[in-house]
Every structure is written in structure tokens, then in C-alpha cells.
Amino acid sequence: MSTVKTTPEAASVAEPVAIEVKNDTASSVKSFLSGGFGGMASVIVGQPFDLVKVRLQTSEGVYKNTLDCFKQIIKKDGVFGLYRGMATPFASITPIFAVSFWSYDLGKKIAYGLRTEKDNKKAPLSLAEITFAGAFSAVPTTLFMAPSERIKVLMQIQGQGGEQKYKGPMDAVRQLYKEGGVRSIFRGTGATLLRDSPGSAAYFLAYELIKKGLTPAGARPEDLSFGAVLFAGGMAGVAMWTIAIPPDVLKSRLQSAPAGTYSGLGDCLKKTLKTDGPSALFKGLGPAMLRAFPANAATFLGVEYSMRAMNMLF
Questions:
Q1: What predicted TM-score, i.e. pTM, was given to this entire model?
Q2: Count of alpha carbons within 13 Å of 212, Cβ hemisphere only?
Q3: Which of 98, 130, 131, 185 is 20 to 30 A away from residue 200, measured at CA?
Q4: Of 10, 1, 188, nearest in space to 103 by CA
Q5: Burial class (CB within 10 angstroms; exposed 0-12, middle 13-18, buried 19+) of 232
Q6: Cα(276)–Cα(176) distance, rounded to whole angstroms?
Q7: Rg, C-alpha atoms of the chain
Q8: What tens-digit pLDDT sequence spans the chain (314 residues)?
Q9: What is the three-state SS of the chain?
């Protein structure tokens, strides 16, 4: 798999730089592993907030607010209860993040390829082109993200009513397949894409713009300080979740509800609005925003610094 060297592409937002494609195995391994390190860092930092978000989105009258949800989980299951359902995203995060960043690079190549002869082929990507590349990145990623999210949500909501239906992620996969085949495992794929396509567009656009703004004249984005990387990554996460919460609520409800509850995404939206009103589409906003900055700051910190370490080793 060919990968695009991160630094020159990031710098292209600030000045015209031709895309440098690395086809060697070492570059592919570095890209894959750095995305994995970033993803694992994100899960470790963000899992407690994600658990609370899902609990708030899928329950009615159980928790008063975000803080009460945290308190009840810790009281019942201890601190480690905040990491319920982490096995699935932790195990799947490496391929998911690898595909996401690879797809974003591919989206940028497509944007360059769509330029006409009159366009400057070496000119920096426009905001529209960066937005397209970010939105495009969600398409391949959703094939991995949707089933992972389905299992994660089911594992996270366990214990609210005392029922332990699934022994673990693999048991959940087996039971879902037995109940409804592959379609059951991939339930919520449309909602996942609806969340991640505009969300990823905002995510990568914010990251590129903030990196550009923080890069001193004549410096390279790869030389950004520890604090600058944290800030750019964190704000990228905030930008994504600012617009991603409504489809995320629908995704969580679709993926956690018993079979037959909703006939599809539109039916889920209709029933949610009828039963709980428009405010229901913003349930979980608090923990999502609390998670957005630290989790995504950790993601890009993991990506940037693991890449730097690997560049020194090989």
C-alpha cells in the first residue's frame, strides 16, 4: 500500500508543495503503526467519556446528567467500569485509523487529479478540496467503523439494568450473526457514514488550518511543538463533534435497540423526535465535548511522535 508522506502534505496548506508518494514497505509500516498508536492513545484517554455519552443516549430517566452518570457507573462497577466495552475499539482501532488517514491522503490525490489543465497542479489544496478529502475518508473507514461501533455500543450499555447478555465482544458477534446474519452486525452503517463524513470533513479541515496557523514562517509543520500538536489535534476533535452529535445519537439508538424497534434511520429519527423531542438529538453532547479535545489531542500526539520515533529508528 502506498502512503503519502504526512509532513509535506500538511505543509501544502501553507505553500505549494508537490505530493511526495512513498512506495517502500518501511513507509507503509510507519504510516500504519503511527495511526495505530494515535488510535490507541485516543481510546485510552477518551473511553470513559464515550461510555457516558452512549449511556446517556440510549437510556431514559436513568441518569440526571453527565456527572450523575459518571457517579452511578463508578458506584456500581468501580473506576474500571468506565472502560467497559473498550476491548472492541482498542482491538480495531489500528486498522480503522490506518484506513482513515490513508483514505484522507487518497482523497487529496483525487482532488488533485480532478483539477483541469487550467488549474495549477502544484497549488495548495483549497478549503473545498480539503473538505472533500476529509469527507471522502469516511467512506472506506465506515466499513470497519460500523461493526466495531455496533459491538462497542452493545458492550457499553450492558449492566444498566443488571442484564449481561454478552460475555465479550466475540460472543456479541456470534449472537448478532445468529440473530440476523451479517446485516445485524453492520446495523447502523448508514448512520455511521452520516456522522463521520461531515465530521471527518470538519476534523481534517480544522487540523490543517490550525497547523497552518501555528507553523512559523519558514518552519515545517513536523517541527511543531508538543503543545501546538496537542492544541491542533484537540481543536480538530472539537470541530468534528460540534456537528456529529445528532447522527451519533441516531447511530447509538439504532445499534443498541432490539431487532425490529426501528425500520431504518428515517424511522429512528421520526420516533426519537416524536417520543423525546428535538433535544434528544443532542443527548451526550456534554461528555462528547469533554472527550473531544483530550482524546483527539492524544490521537495526533500519538501519530506525530510515534512517526518521529520510527523515523529515527528506520
A1: 0.79
A2: 18
A3: 185
A4: 1
A5: buried
A6: 28
A7: 20
A8: 444 444 444 444 444 333 343 445 666 567 677 778 888 898 888 889 888 888 888 877 788 888 999 999 999 889 888 888 787 777 777 778 888 878 888 888 888 888 877 667 678 888 999 999 999 999 999 999 999 999 988 988 886 655 678 888 899 999 999 999 999 999 999 999 999 999 999 999 999 899 888 988 888 777 788 899 899 999 999 999 999 999 999 999 999 998 889 999 999 999 999 999 999 999 889 888 988 999 999 998 988 888 888 888 87
A9: CCEECHHHHHHCCCCCCCCCEECCHHHHHHHHHHHHHHHHHHHHHHHHHHHHHHHHHHCCCCCCCHHHHHHHHHHHHCHHHHHCCCHHHHHHHHHHHHHHHHHHHHHHHHHHHCCCCCCCCCCCCCHHHHHHHHHHHHHHHHHHHHHHHHHHHHHHHCCCCCCCCCCCHHHHHHHHHHHHHHHHHCCCHHHHHHHHHHHHHHHHHHHHHHHHHHCCCCCCHHHCCHHHHHHHHHHHHHHHHHHHHHHHHHHHHHHHCCCCCCCCHHHHHHHHHHHHCHHHHHCCHHHHHHHHHHHHHHHHHHHHHHHHHHHHHC
Asked if 47 and 89 touch (Cβ cutoff 8 Å), the reply is yes
Residue type, 141: T
In the numeric block, which cell numbers belong to residue 248? 451519533
* Cα–Cα distance for residue pair 14/209, rounded to 1 Å: 9
Report residue 230 as a C-alpha cell.
Answer: 496537542
Place of cell 505543509: 11
The C-alpha cell at 5 is 508522506
